[in-house]
Amino acid sequence: PRPPAGDPQVIERALRLAATALTKPRKTLANAVRPGLDTDGVVAAGIDPQRRPGTLGLDEWCRLADVAAT
Hints:
The protein is mostly helical. It has helices at about 10-20, 30, 40-45, 60-70. Helix content is about 50%, strand content about 0%. The N and C termini lie far apart (about 25 Å).
């Protein structure tokens, strides 16, 4: 799969967020992305906060990074 086209800064933020969350693979996404993003932020990105970090694709990490930046 090709990475999503978009702002390189969003992709960079997404990769940093993913790298942090993926160090806690057994936690739910809502817990793995704290304190940078809360459960409401995960939901605002259109992602189930009960998912595990390893199940997200790059496009989903980009959505999370976009929400975290606002």
